[in-house]
Design a protein that fits this description.
By secondary structure, the protein is of the alpha/beta class. The chain has a single domain, classed as TIM Barrel (Alpha-Beta Barrel). It is 31% helix and 14% strand. The strands form three sheets. The chain has an eight-stranded parallel beta sheet. Strands 1-2 form a two-stranded antiparallel ribbon. Strand 6 (130-131), helix 3 (141-146) and strand 7 (156-157) form a beta-alpha-beta unit. Helix 6 runs parallel beside helix 7. It binds flavin mononucleotide. Flavin mononucleotide binds next to strand 4 and helix 10. It holds the Pfam family Oxidored_FMN. Residues 125-148 are annotated as: Disordered.
């Protein structure tokens, strides 16, 4: 029901700003903060400035997903990304989670292992990064496409008997996240990192039961889903997938079948949500353009469906109104507009994001200094 406005007509509610019940969580609107790596967690330890950053983006009943957070000492690839495998890291997350909860927000921690998107320098004892494969990422990739200044070292293919240890790293990290006060976790199964290195056939060249068929390539991801569901409850577990992207040399010959297989397989575990990245996202000029849609996966998955990638106010509203997603996830525009839900409510102008400061280590600039509406319209 809409509010009455002056001329006596019903004002239509703004779809993005309608409430939604996601499992046990009562959300007051559908504008979600995307996981956004900011590289300001010095020495892999979350810092006090992150409490301000996340609380700025918190609304009562709003849903936030943290930046990708390493599950173990082999999970890192970029400098100053946070982890959640040590006691110190868990303690450091607590005030950040508390700051979000103090404003009535709901926050999940995105759990991450980069796999081969790493180098000797980022690994314990200078060892090789681990992966599904020993194939290297195309060397020219980092600076030309992402702006990330990292070098990739040749990975080491995980032996089959090592895989349960990695699943266990995710499980322990999820337990740590709950210990830190998070409401749940999102498994980072997207964008070319370790889980995708198993999921996609361009990267996964294994011949054991973790490679080959779709079922085999999805086994590692689903083992993590199962382990986390058992450890912290399926209502606290979400997963992010990007079958259509080709980030970090991870592409699949049949992304639609892969996405659909995962959407259907996830139903068995009854997890809270499936978060998918739109096919329209292109990471560089040579990436394939996909005219596919997420609709088959949206229809197949029985839990909450989150869609991300290139959304603004109008198409976000349309996606909700047409029931193509339950929640819309905003990255760059939420980064530069801490009060994004308010701006959508008022249809106010947005502050443009500054790419140059996405990944710098300054604790304020390009991080907590984006203006709120009151200060821009005064
Ligand atoms: C600065 C930056 C950091 C990002 N870090 C992550 C991350 O840690 N985990 C992740 O899954 N996606 C990450 N992404 C992708 C975003 O979550 C999002 O899917 C992407 O920006 C597209 O959405 P948008 O068009 O609303 O920005 C990042 C994107 C940007 C711009």
């Amino acid at each position: 029901m809409g509010k009455k406005i002056d001329n006596g007509q019903e004002e239509q509610p703004i779809p993005l700003l309608t409430p939604y019940k996601m499992g046990p969580f009562q959300l007051s609107h559908r504008v979600v903060l995307a996981p956004l790596t900011r590289q300001r967690s010095y020495g892999n330890v979350p810092q006090p400035h992150a409490a301000l950053y996340y609380s700025q983006r918190t609304t009562e009943g709003g849903f936030l997903i943290t930046e990708a957070t390493g599950v173990s000492d082999t999970a890192q690839g970029y400098p100053d990304t946070p982890g959640i495998w040590t006691k110190e890291q868990v303690e450091a997350w607590k005030p950040i989670v508390d700051a979000v909860h103090a404003k009535g927000g709901i926050i999940f921690c995105q759990l991450w292992h980069v796999g081969r998107v790493s180098n000797y320098g980022a690994q314990p004892h200078g060892q090789a990064p681990i992966s599904s494969t020993d194939k290297e990422i195309t060397p020219h990739l980092p600076t030309s496409t992402t702006g990330y200044d990292i070098k990739f070292s040749p990975p080491r293919r995980l032996r089959k008997e090592e895989i349960p240890d990695i699943v266990n790293n995710f499980r322990l990290a999820a337990l740590n996240a709950i210990e830190a006060g998070f409401d749940g976790v999102e498994i980072h199964g997207a964008h070319g990192y370790l889980i995708e290195q198993f999921l996609k056939d361009k990267a996964n060249d294994r011949t054991d039961e973790y490679g080959g068929s779709i079922e085999n390539r999805c086994r590692f991801a689903l083992e993590i889903v199962e382990a986390l569901s058992n450890a912290i409850g399926p209502h606290r577990v979400g997963i992010r997938l990007s079958p259509f992207t080709d980030f970090m040399d991870c592409a699949d010959s049949n992304p639609k079948a892969l996405g659909l297989y995962m959407a259907e397989a996830l139903n068995k575990y009854g997890i809270l949500y499936l978060h998918m990245v739109e096919p329209r996202i292109r990471v560089n000029e040579n990436s394939k353009r996909h005219d596919d849609s997420l609709l088959p996966m949206r229809k197949a998955f029985k839990g909450t469906f989150l869609a991300a990638g290139g959304y603004l106010r109008e198409d976000g509203n349309e996606a909700i109104a047409e029931n193509r997603a339950d929640l819309i996830v905003y990255g760059r525009w939420f980064l530069s507009n801490p009060d994004l839900p308010k701006r959508f409510e008022l249809n106010a102008p947005l502050t443009k994001y500054d790419r140059a400061t996405f990944y710098i280590s300054d604790p304020v600039i390009g991080y907590t200094d984006y203006p709120f509406l009151e200060t821009t319209t005064a």
